[in-house]
Design a protein that fits this description.
Blueprint: H1 3-38, H2 43-74
Length: 75
């Protein structure tokens, strides 16, 4: 296998993390909305945790994208 082909395959595998982050963010907000509709009084107390979870999930997706870019352009 050529080294450039292996590099592109590795970058494609690393880019899977960005799709997983998108699924995670959708799941996070969907579950919050479902819980907020069941108990609206507790929704304000959980909003900070929602934003923290969103930030962590999105950061993992950005790190996966960074690794993919590093594999394509820097190696």
């Amino acid at each position: 296998m050529d080294a450039s082909a292996a590099k592109l395959i590795g970058a494609g595998l690393a880019a899977i993390g960005t799709g997983a982050a998108a699924i995670g963010v959708g799941n996070l907000f969907g579950q919050f909305l479902g819980g907020a509709l069941r108990n609206p009084a507790a929704a304000d107390g959980q909003f900070g945790r929602l934003i923290f979870g969103f930030a962590v999930t999105e950061a993992l997706g950005i790190f996966a994208l960074l690794i993919a870019f590093l594999l394509i352009y820097a190696v």
